[in-house]
């Protein structure tokens, strides 16, 4: 029954007959993050993490990341798309050719099966022969629901959107705002600040790349921190979720599955006469750490920049992304009204 439900849902998506709210009302028991441990016959062992996502009608892909007990990644394996059957999903995959996002120590291959909420598999390759086992975990950001400090600028608290100069998006019944036609801009001008924003991306299994739950958080209305459904992707690029577009890719995939509420806690520091510095913490994990904007982008921005607009812009990219609990704490100086 679950497989048929997903199939017909995807047909509705393709026909364009689904309401925006329906992108958040789907149950998918296979999609999610799985955690456990791996070990080889030679005695090597450590934690294993996997992300499994839907990619088309009743098909799934993702990745498996093997790490040391103390330290960074050992290797990552991309899982090829495979169909969901009544007996489970059987994946195979190999280490990507391009090494990135850490110290990848060798080529590996896996054969694994997802069944009844458990991912089990075999490892071969440079690490030797081994096995792994992981179970599905519940995900919640440590900063979810963070309350604004006393002097923060509150841009959306579930009801009031008065902090925007051109607010026209939909306010949902559960206290979120949903992207509709056109960007929105904050009224205030602020130099350095700490920003908290909660967001979620829609369930769009048949969409690809930049068409999959795309939006953007624009610092100073010109430097884009990407919002995208990048769950299940490895390695990430600067236009994946949590990356600063044209500046820095996330150093780890900290994404939650689509339909899940996620958090950005972003620090933006202006240095007089120097390039601004950006730090992005996604779901409690630092994905971009004190990165300077290249001088060549300071004037032009990273794409889609709005000159002389407020300190924050949220982007409409044609997908019904939702936001809530948006506030910013000015640093070093008080905010000034436009």
Mean pLDDT: 89
Query: Per CATH, which architecture of the largest domain?
Result: Sandwich
Spell out the CATH superfamily of the largest domain: Exo-inulinase, domain 1
What general form does the structure show? globular
Biggest sheet overview: 8 strands, antiparallel, barrel
Give the CATH class of the largest domain.
Mainly Beta
Distance between the termini: 55 Å
How many E strands? 20
Order of the strands making up the biggest sheet: 1-2-3-4-5-6-7-8
CATH topology of the largest domain: Jelly Rolls
Q: How many domain modules?
A: 2
Number of helix segments? 2
Strand content: 35-45%
Low-confidence blocks of residues: 1-18
- Could you state the order of secondary-structure elements as H and E? HEEEEEEEEEEEEEEEEEEHEE
Helix content: under 10%
Radius of gyration: 21 Å
Category from helices, strands and their pairing: mainly beta
How would you explain this protein's 3D organization?
The chain is mostly beta strands and 338 residues long. The chain folds into two domains: 2-136, Beta Barrel (Lipocalin), CATH 2.40.128.120; 153-331, Exo-inulinase, domain 1 (Jelly Rolls, Sandwich). The chain is 5% helix and 40% strand. It contains two helices and 20 strands. It has helices spanning 2-15, 295-298; strands at residues 32-40, 45-56, 59-67, 73-83, 89-94, 108-115, 118-125, 130-136, 153-156, 170-171, 177-178, 184-185, 192-200, 215-219, 223-227, 262-269, 277-282, 285-292, 312-314, 322-331. The strands form three sheets. An eight-stranded antiparallel beta barrel has the order 1-2-3-4-5-6-7-8. Strands 9, 10, 11, 13, 16, 17, 18 and 20 form an eight-stranded antiparallel beta sheet that branches. The radius of gyration is 21 Å and the shape is globular. It starts with a helix and ends in a 7-residue tail after the last strand.
């Amino acid at each position: 029954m679950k497989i048929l439900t997903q199939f017909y849902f995807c047909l509705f998506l393709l026909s364009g007959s689904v309401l925006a709210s329906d992108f958040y009302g789907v149950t998918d028991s296979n999609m999610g993050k799985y955690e456990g441990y791996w070990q080889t016959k030679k005695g090597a062992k450590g934690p294993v993490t996997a992300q499994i996502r839907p990619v088309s009608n009743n098909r799934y892909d993702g990745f498996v990341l093997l790490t040391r007990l103390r330290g960074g990644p050992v290797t990552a394996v991309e899982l090829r798309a495979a169909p969901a059957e009544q007996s489970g999903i059987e994946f195979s995959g190999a280490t990507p050719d391009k090494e990135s996002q850490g110290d990848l120590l060798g080529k590996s291959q896996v054969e694994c099966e997802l069944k009844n909420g458990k991912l089990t598999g075999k490892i071969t390759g440079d690490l030797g022969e081994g096995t792994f086992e992981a179970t599905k975990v519940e995900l919640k950001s440590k900063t979810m629901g963070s309350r604004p400090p006393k002097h923060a600028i509150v841009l959306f608290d579930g009801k009031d959107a008065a902090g925007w100069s051109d607010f026209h998006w939909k306010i949902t019944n559960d206290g979120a705002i949903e992207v509709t036609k056109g960007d929105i801009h904050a009224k205030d001008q602020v130099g350095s600040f700490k920003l908290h924003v909660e967001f979620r991306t829609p369930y769009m299994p048949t969409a690809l790349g930049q068409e999959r739950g795309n939006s953007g958080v624009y610092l100073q209305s010109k430097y884009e921190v990407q919002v995208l459904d990048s769950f299940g992707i490895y390695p990430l690029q600067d236009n994946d979720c949590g990356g600063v577009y044209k500046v820095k890719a996330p150093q780890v995939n900290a994404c939650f599955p689509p339909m899940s509420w996620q958090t950005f806690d972003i620090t933006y520091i202006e240095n007089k006469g120097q390039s601004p510095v950006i730090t992005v913490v996604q779901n409690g994990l630092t994905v971009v750490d004190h990165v300077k904007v290249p001088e060549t982008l300071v004037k032009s921005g990273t794409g889609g920049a709005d000159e002389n607009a407020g300190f924050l812009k949220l982007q409409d990219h044609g997908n019904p992304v939702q936001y809530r609990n948006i506030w910013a704490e000015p640093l070093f100086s008080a905010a000034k009204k436009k």
